[in-house]
Automatic annotation (TrEMBL):
SUPFAM superfamilies: AhpD-like. One of its GO terms (molecular function) is peroxiredoxin activity. Gene3D superfamilies: AhpD-like. Residues 40-109 form the Carboxymuconolactone decarboxylase-like domain. The lineage of its organism: Bacteria, Pseudomonadati, Pseudomonadota, Betaproteobacteria, Burkholderiales. This is Putative Antioxidant defence protein AhpD. InterPro entries: AhpD-like, CMD-like. It comes from the Bacteria. Pfam families: CMD (PF02627).
Length: 203
């Protein structure tokens, strides 16, 4: 349940900002947007920044979405996971990989399910999210697997979605009901699937 009521789904003002957000979202406002729009200045900065992170980086979309899904589960941000698990699958990830994210440290060591680049992505996501400081060995592996620009982008994505997840969890942003459709319809992640993918030890 949201801790502050959402702004209206049919909000029209400020028009340029609302139109820009609707354009990026395919025509509608998500619950996250409706929360952000309590502060137009904050929503404007968020929309521009997140738009760039989602669509203007050289980082492999599969690694980007893997990092986001790991951060979401580590921070118990079910909203974030519900939106990004389908993006991970669309980028070439598998359902078995998503299931393995219930235990990120174990996934880091899983050379069967994950490639070296995917494993170092998970390692850095875990270290940044749980410990903030990252072991130099993981950075060495990242530098061996990715060019400098993509290493910077990977770190930036992980930092960004830690911000997003903390915003979502602190304000209690709900998953939209349209994301809880029957998986056979080809859309969404069911609440049952989300519950099954909570990290080990989560409440």
């Amino acid at each position: 349940m949201p801790r502050i009521a959402y702004t209206p789904a049919d909000l029209e003002q400020p028009a340029d900002l609302v139109d820009a957000i609707r354009s990026r979202r395919g025509g509608k406002l998500l619950n996250l947007d409706r929360m952000l729009l309590h502060s137009p200045a904050f929503a404007r900065g968020w929309n521009g920044f997140l738009g760039a992170v989602r669509s203007e980086l050289d980082l492999d979309p599969l690694l980007r979405e893997l990092a986001i899904c790991a951060v979401a589960l580590l921070n118990h941000a079910q909203y974030e996971f519900a939106h990004h698990a389908p993006e991970f699958l669309a980028a070439g990830g598998t359902a078995m990989q998503l299931a393995a994210l219930a235990d990120v440290p174990a996934a880091v060591d899983d050379a069967v399910l994950f490639s070296p680049a995917q494993r170092v992505t998970l390692a850095i996501a875990y270290e940044m999210t749980r410990r903030v400081k990252v072991n130099e060995a993981y950075f060495a592996a990242a530098r061996a697997a990715l060019p400098p620009q993509q290493v910077v982008e990977l770190v930036g994505v992980i930092a960004t979605y830690n911000m997003v997840s903390r915003f979502l969890v602190a304000l209690g942003v709900d998953i939209e009901t349209t994301l809880a459709k029957d998986p056979e319809d080809g859309g969404g992640i069911t609440p049952e699937a989300l519950a099954a993918l909570r990290p080990a030890g989560s409440a």
